[in-house]
Write a structure and sequence with these properties.
The protein is α+β, with helices and mostly antiparallel strands. It is built from 26 helices and 18 strands. The strands form five sheets. It has a six-stranded mixed sheet with strand order 2-1-6-3-4-5, with helices on both faces. A six-stranded mixed sheet has the order 8-7-12-9-10-11. Strands 13-14 form a two-stranded antiparallel ribbon. A hairpin with a 2-residue loop joins strand 15 and strand 16. Helix 20 crosses helix 24.
């Protein structure tokens, strides 16, 4: 019996049949998969096959909350979204802020599972245990800001709105989903999946009170946790400046991507897009997710930069469409970011494909004849803005760039060096040559190029997990335990993404022990930190099995991009290259995977033999010879 944290209800939506139904789950299911990405992984693994077209009606799109959304606690303004990714053809997931997670939980559901394809544009209205599929013809073609305003006006001003703009409608393979204009399901192309289903938006309003097993105990734990988090330096910095505060120090230590990861240093440029200039020039105000004490999302108040009705650029955006393109014009970055928010484009993959395109242009592989006269020159902010428009609308060369890096390289084979990706997805603005702990996150994330699937950069920074034996970090250039740390932090990240929880609080002194104590107070369970890790490990292993089913060959795919195997000559990471093959081998050993394939013993240990694929084990567990 579920005592707290869940309704035990999943809303199933078949858009093809225009049918709504309610599924249920018990406590055993909840404790095994927790919620969020864990719940989504289990459902998608059961229903999606290698033959499923990511942009076809057979793909399954899941929005899922976890037990934390049952409580009004800082860090719980999150939600997970997952599907087979149209960008990679493998596992796809994104985690986002905004109001969708808490609102969905208050509306009486733990998750929404969407299948099929509507014959015309629709939106989904969910309210206090009920749901309707409604016509969205009048909203199709609107950008995300316009859609959000129109739906709030016509349905409920207090509703959470998660929607797509033209990039999602045009099936750009890295289209994202906008949540209330400032939270975004960014990676993998979840917005394209919505577009392929003719689903314009989810509109959610809930006034129900989710159950909490022991509210008094939760209040006791939370009071202490909140006090520590409020006093943390990270909280103060993130509140004042947001993620832009990372730009200058990460340029100094070599983590920031510069000129498509090819430049060594860029101090003058970083100062023009980082803090304090960023905060002062844009006249920033906080834009928090529900109950958050940080409010890292930014509202741009300086009218010089208006219209600016989506969240201002964050670190990944400043890195990928700023320093990665050597664009130091903050106005151009703000404008491109605004377009991405309105059109619903992932800024990380946008920066990756434009980095590729700019470098092709520099080397004569792309000319003005290909770009309709746009000069793709490093530092050209006007080109950044124009290409963002072209990609979202699939105009001219934008139609190729909308397909992602691997399609671009297939068109121009001599350009592979310029494609900084893993599984076809651009890596984030975290150069692993600066922090060896980022190696696994970069090349062995189950969703492809990533900076968050593990974020073992924390291990290098000394932000540790003593509850499960990680009591001492190592220098960022020391190879010791980097594969091990990559495995452990990856497990914990997926535990967090199943709660679901904002991991920024991990850097504000909220420990794994704290997280487990709050989980137990909400659910009435007795989960230990070791069990928490095992939950995360189960999720990672299921996702790896999913990718094997989709045809992934780990020894071919889990490879460091060639450019990142060459050292910088200057800057904060000069002369450093992670021995990625050794780190990957240690990671696989820690996971009990053979060349990336989970052992049968591991599947049995995690209790997931019922989704084991003998075919995947036979086909993929071979010596790859290239």
């Amino acid at each position: 019996m579920l005592k707290g944290g869940y309704w035990g209800k999943i809303l199933w939506v078949d858009l093809s049949k225009k049918e709504l139904s309610e599924g249920k789950f018990d406590e055993g299911f909840a404790r095994k998969y927790l919620g969020g990405v864990g719940l989504a992984t289990r459902i998608i693994s059961e229903h999606v096959t290698r033959n499923t077209n990511p942009l076809g009606p057979g793909n399954v799109l899941v929005f899922a909350t976890g037990p934390y959304q049952a409580a009004n606690i800082a860090s719980a303004g999150r939600c997970s979204c997952a599907a087979k990714a149209p960008l990679t053809g493998y596992w796809g997931e994104a985690n986002a802020g905004g109001h969708i997670g808490p609102e969905l939980k208050r509306a009486g559901f733990d998750a929404v599972v969407i299948t099929g394809r509507a014959t015309c544009p629709v939106y989904l209205w969910i309210n206090d245990g009920k749901a309707e599929i409604r016509d969205a013809g009048e909203f199709w073609g609107m950008d995300a800001v316009e859609t959000t305003a129109a739906l709030k006006s016509s349905v409920d001003a207090k509703a959470a709105v998660s929607c797509i703009g033209p990039a999602g409608e045009n099936l750009v393979r890295y289209a994202c989903i906008a949540n209330d204009n400032h939270g975004f399901f960014g990676r993998g192309g979840m917005g394209a999946v919505m577009g392929s289903k003719n689903l314009k938006a989810l509109v959610i309003r809930g006034t129900m009170k989710p159950p909490v097993a022991d509210p008094d105990k939760l209040k006791e734990f939370y009071r202490d946790i909140l006090a520590r988090a409020k006093d943390a330096p990270f909280t103060a910095d993130n509140s004042q400046h947001g993620q832009a505060s990372a730009v200058v120090p990460r340029e100094e230590n070599g983590l920031l991507p510069m000129k498509n990861f090819a430049m060594d240093s860029w101090p003058e440029g970083a100062a023009k897009i980082g803090v304090p200039y960023f905060t002062e020039e844009l006249q920033i105000k906080r834009w928090p997710c529900p109950s958050c004490i940080m409010g890292c999302h930014r509202r741009i108040m300086n009218p010089k930069y208006h219209p600016a009705e989506t969240g201002g650029p964050e670190y990944e955006t400043l890195g990928m469409i700023g320093s990665n393109l050597l664009v130091d014009d903050l106005g151009a970055i703000v404008r491109a970011n605004e377009l991405c928010g309105r059109y619903t484009l992932d800024t990380i993959d946008l920066g990756g494909v434009l980095g590729w395109a700019f470098e092709c242009y520099e080397n004569g592989l792309i000319t003005k004849d290909d770009t309709d006269g746009v000069a793709l020159e490093w530092g050209n902010g006007d080109a950044l803005v124009k290409m963002t428009e072209k990609i979202a609308r699939r105009e001219g060369i934008g139609n190729l760039l909308a397909e992602g890096l691997r399609a671009c390289v297939e068109r121009i084979p001599g350009s592979k060096l310029y494609a900084i990706e893993s599984l076809g997805q651009t890596i984030g603005a975290h150069d692993p040559r600066a922090f060896f702990g980022q190696t696994i996150t970069t090349i062995a994330s189950t969703r492809g190029g990533c900076h968050l699937h593990g974020f073992a950069e924390a291990f290098d920074l000394g932000v540790l997990l003593p509850e499960i034996g990680v009591t001492e970090g190592t220098d960022r250039f020391d190879v010791a335990k980097k594969g091990y740390a990559g495995a452990i932090y990856q497990d914990i990240q997926q535990f967090w993404n199943s709660l679901t929880w904002c991991f920024f609080y991990f850097f504000s002194g909220v420990t794994l022990g704290d997280e487990v104590n709050m989980l137990n107070a909400i659910t009435g369970w007795d989960v230990t930190p070791e069990e928490a890790q095992k939950i995360g490990e189960r999720v990672v292993c299921m996702q790896q099995m999913f990718n094997l089913e989709m045809g992934m060959v780990p020894e071919k795919e889990n490879v460091m991009p060639e450019r990142l195997t060459k050292p910088h000559k200057e800057g904060g990471a000069a002369g450093q290259v992670p021995p990625w093959k050794d780190i990957l081998e240690e990671y696989w050993k820690t996971k009990d995977w053979t060349k990336g394939v989970p052992s049968k013993a591991k599947l049995e240990e995690l209790g997931i033999t019922d989704i084991e694929s003998e075919k995947a084990l036979r086909v993929v567990a071979v010596d790859y010879k290239g």
